[in-house]
Amino acid sequence: MATSDPTMTLQLIDTIQRLGVGYYFQEEINNILEKLTKVLPDDDLYILALLFRLRRHNGLHTNPQGIYFFMTRLIIICYVVFNISSSLFLLNMMSFFSSKAKVFHNFMDANGELNKSSSEDIQGLLSLYEASYMGSTEEYILSNAKEITSIHLSRSVSQLSPKLHQKVVDALRLPRHMRMQRLEARRYIEEYASEDDHNPILLEFAKIDYNMVQSVLQRELLEVTWWWEHLGLSSKLFLSEIDMLSVFFGLLDFYRS
Q: Is 24 within the bounds of a domain?
């Protein structure tokens, strides 16, 4: 899967996962993302944000709750045993653990706004906007980035090429992280097929996989519907068939994410 160009490798991983076939290569994807973290430059907003989003999407980050549970106890130990200032230690620890998100500081000025070159990089802005939805509640820089990028993208959307215009509009309407994976795969298969540089083998593979998964889900839905009707769950649970379908697809997306 890896290529000699780290940028192309990241884009390929993103494409594979958007097509819905990333689960076939999950271990390889994780290994590549770990390696690329050490070699990619930190001055390319598009690539940096893409790497950040892909890492978070694939679970390659520390649980914030685990961080603060660990930090609290370590602060107490250092304060009691080593007489280290708890406030100073807390500041240093937070700086260390949030370093992944802080790398985006390179693209902002002293006022917390995007610098001129970054604000004109639409691909980079879009990439950062999508990445901002992968932040935790403690990563305030990503919350700020979400607000700033959405403003810049909204202002520039009317000046973009038709293809980029549609991508920005779709993202502002519903960020990729919030989309249902199988529905997004179905939509992206059509979009990818229209791209001049698409890989026909990968495209055909994605179509076959989508049809196979769809067939399995249709059988599962038939079984669930049968049990729903024959056990009289609609009257016992006071739920309609539409509610049952909502639960089915909700659990499906939760499981596959």
A: no
